[in-house]
Amino acid sequence: MNSSAIEYIANASRDNHSQMEVFTQLENNMQDLGLLQQRSTRGRRKRCNETPEETARRAEEKKIKNRVSAARSRAKTNEHINNLESKVEQLKRDNELLERKIKFQVEMIKEDEEKTKAEKTRETSNRLRRAFSSSF
Question: What pTM was computed for the model?
Fold first, then answer.
């Protein structure tokens, strides 16, 4: 570090400046001396010591990683869709089976009601009836 920057830090700590003020002033001094590249107001800092080849290699690696990630995401989505479709098919089969069971149960109930009704009519027709021939 430059001696003027060190002197500024020492003086600032004695003068009770806030840390943010100290670091801002230090950064400005370093930029003035050419020790630090000026930051842009938006985005990330550029890599100072990178060659264009390294930058291109990083960009290519990023593209490859992104491609692999996208392929993994598509595969996961397709697997999820296939699982849902198989569940739908299984639920349709279960539904058909339950509908057949319900239909069978309804038929059995109707048959039982018809038998009960027939037995009632038979009982009423076979009962002895009192003749109303005499008056009391």
Answer: 0.47
